[in-house]
Specification:
Layout: H1 2-27, H2 32-48, H3 55-75, H4 80-110
Helix pairs in contact: 1-2, 1-4, 2-4, 3-4
Length: about 110
């Protein structure tokens, strides 16, 4: 039961985080407080939402998203809203990907 509850919290954190990232990034209101909130949501997603079977696809997708968002900022730098959305998505996916990667390394080291 606890696994299902943490998965539910992680799923909601992911959904709320992505919606917040898009809305706050589009509005251009990424104050440090909002960035901290997005990072905290990313940590929750990494800790609670990614099961062992989802690790490899999440790491691949998360890495591609981080690279595309980081490099895409220079392409869309003239469009403030798109640049803000990419920064906000980075604030969520970077810590989530790092957490899942660390969990995966520990799992590999145990085996």
């Amino acid at each position: 039961m606890a696994k299902n509850k943490s998965n539910l919290i992680g799923s909601w954190a992911f959904l709320i985080g992505v919606i917040l990232a898009v809305v706050l990034g589009f509005m251009g209101s990424l104050s440090p407080t909002f960035v901290y909130v997005l990072v905290a949501i990313g940590i929750l997603v990494g800790l609670l939402n990614i099961a062992d079977a989802e690790t490899q696809p999440f790491l691949m997708s998360g890495t591609v998203l981080i690279i595309a968002a980081a490099l895409g900022q220079s392409v869309v730098s003239s469009i403030e809203q798109l640049s803000g959305i990419l920064v906000a998505l980075l604030a969520i996916f970077t810590p989530a990907t790092i957490i899942v990667a660390i969990k995966n390394v520990f799992k590999l080291a145990r085996n």
